């Protein structure tokens, strides 16, 4: 059977490039949508829509956790009972989605506690959206395991494009308010589910046995692990207003913090795309040493490509905020710096978590993740009433780094990697120091000269990193092929 574009399989470098490109596109679209809604909706309605989006993001984290990753691991490892695993993952995740949808409706309809002032129609639409997210997450898990990263990326971009177009149309053209936004989110989830189903049609199982016991046993620790991870990235936003996160009004404080979180966590989504691309290769590795080599290459991309971007946010946040956000968000400088520090820990934890899950160590991860969530939760209750948004940011950073340290211990115990050589660390620090000098100057140079200095610092950093041989070989080879291809075609 001929392989179509959406059925193409890719390696880590190519898969990372495709997924990072998709994440970059969806990040820009999601940010633009948030800014547009802030202008188009009254503040109280914008707060409700923001809460709805956060709740669906949390549901996505839960539903993209256990069953999809258990299926991705089985597909990547070419298990003999892949079809039975697929059936079990599909039934389990859609069943979980139904439970979450019913629970959400049971709380929201009689009390309105989750979405104040929202009637039954948006509530039902949101509940149906949760079920569609459950279906789509299983299909994306199978695509990830099959290394069909083009299909994964296209699914995510299509969902985001449909969401942006339909939400803006619902608010502006049809003036449907929150109900229109809920309908738009439902349709975009249906579009993603339909496209991923189409991309997976040659591997869909027919009727047959269901490997329920084994898949459920694998999925439970995976669900605990990745659900806790998703909570780390949303709990601060959801609880800030409830805990009294600001002296200038809870709504204003939450809005400023949400803006800071969008900026400070942006590099995480790029790093998560790299670890997603590495996951099936780690799962299929023949030995722990091979699995560690793949994980190490993914980890190397964090300081190579993402830490310099975070260094800009850490050293020159005022410059970034003045370019990206309106002046009303100037108070986001403090939270952005702290969230950036926490995001570095979250990036490390994400890569280690997926490596451990890929090799079947879900129980070890599940035993550690709740401690990190507890640290963040305790920090929120202690720090937010006194320090507001900055306290929420420190709570996020504490939880993220707690998870990174705990997962690093689990990884070292089970993979037993060799001790890293100090020379690459020294070279990377030297390259980063050059960039940091340019960023420091940029923060005091004005918008246009500052932006030029940031670009100069990043270019100098990349040049030094390439000269010192810090770029992983497979990434360098992928770039060389991309550079040679247009020259050959011309």
Put the structure in a nutshell.
The protein folds into three domains: 1-221, no CATH class; 233-418, no CATH class; 421-471. The protein is 81% helix and 0% strand. It has helices at 12-40, 43-63, 66-76, 82-111, 120-145, 149-172, 177-199, 212-232, 235-240, 250-264, 266-284, 288-315, 317-324, 333-358, 362-387, 389-415, 422-442, 447-467, 473-489.
Polypeptide structure, described:
The protein contains 19 helices and no strands. The protein is mostly helical and 490 residues long. The chain folds into 3 domains: 1-221, no CATH class; 233-418, no CATH class; 421-471. It starts with 11 loop residues before the first helix and ends with a helix. The mean pLDDT is 82.
Give unreliable regions as ranges.
none
Shape: globular
Radius of gyration: 22 Å
- Share in β-strands: under 5%
Distance separating the two termini: 31 Å
Assembly state (oligomeric):
single chain
Number of helices: 19
Number of strands: 0
Q: How many strands, what sense, and barrel or not for the largest sheet? A: none
Order of helices and strands: HHHHHHHHHHHHHHHHHHH
Q: What portion of residues is helical?
A: over 70%
Residue-averaged pLDDT: 82
Give me the secondary-structure category: mainly alpha
């Amino acid at each position: 059977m001929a392989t179509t574009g959406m059925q193409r399989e890719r390696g880590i470098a190519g898969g990372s490039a495709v997924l990072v490109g998709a994440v970059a596109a969806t990040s820009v679209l999601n940010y633009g949508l948030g800014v547009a809604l802030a202008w188009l909706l009254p503040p109280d309605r914008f707060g409700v829509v923001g809460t709805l989006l956060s709740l669906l993001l949390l549901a996505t984290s839960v539903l993209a956790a256990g069953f999809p990753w258990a299926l991705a691991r089985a597909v990547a490892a070419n298990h003999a009972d892949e079809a039975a695993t697929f059936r079990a993952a599909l039934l389990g995740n859609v069943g979980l989605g139904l439970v979450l949808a019913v629970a959400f409706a049971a709380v929201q309809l009689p009390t309105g506690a989750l979405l104040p002032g929202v009637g039954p129609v948006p509530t039902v639409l949101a509940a149906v959206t949760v079920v569609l997210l459950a279906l789509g997450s299983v299909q994306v898990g199978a695509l990830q395991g099959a290394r069909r990263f083009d299909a994964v990326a296209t699914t995510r971009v299509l969902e985001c494009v449909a969401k942006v177009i339909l939400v803006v149309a619902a608010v502006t053209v049809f003036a449907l308010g929150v109900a229109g936004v809920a309908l738009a989110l439902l349709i975009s989830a249906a579009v993603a589910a339909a496209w991923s189903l189409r991309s997976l049609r040659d591997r869909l199982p027919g009727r047959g046995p269901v490997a329920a016991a084994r898949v459920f046993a694998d999925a439970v620790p995976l669900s605990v692990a990745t659900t806790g991870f998703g909570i780390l990235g949303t709990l601060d936003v959801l609880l800030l207003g409830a805990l009294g996160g600001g002296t200038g009004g809870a709504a204003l404080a939450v809005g400023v913090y949400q803006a800071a979180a969008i900026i400070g966590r942006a590099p995480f989504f790029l790093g998560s795309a790299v670890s997603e691309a590495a996951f099936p290769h780690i799962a299929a590795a023949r030995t722990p040493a091979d699995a560690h080599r793949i994980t190490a290459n993914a980890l190397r991309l964090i300081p190579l490509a993402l830490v310099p971007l975070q260094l800009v946010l850490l050293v020159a946040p005022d410059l970034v905020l003045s370019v990206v956000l309106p002046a009303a968000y100037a108070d986001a400088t403090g939270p952005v710096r702290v969230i950036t520090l926490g995001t570095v820990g979250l990036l490390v934890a994400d890569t280690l978590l997926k490596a451990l899950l890929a090799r079947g160590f879900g129980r070890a991860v599940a035993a550690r993740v709740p401690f990190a969530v507890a640290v963040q939760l305790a920090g929120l209750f202690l720090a937010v009433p006194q320090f507001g948004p900055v306290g929420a940011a420190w709570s996020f950073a504490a939880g993220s780094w707690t998870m990174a340290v705990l997962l690093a211990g689990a990884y070292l115990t089970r993979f037993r990697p060799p001790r890293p050589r100090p020379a690459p660390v020294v070279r990377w620090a030297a390259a980063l120091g050059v960039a940091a000098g340019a960023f420091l100057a940029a923060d005091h140079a004005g918008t246009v000269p500052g932006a030029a200095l940031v670009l100069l610092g990043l270019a100098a950093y990349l040049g030094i990193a390439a000269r010192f041989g810090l770029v992983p070989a497979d990434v360098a080879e992928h770039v060389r092929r991309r550079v040679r291809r247009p020259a050959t075609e011309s």
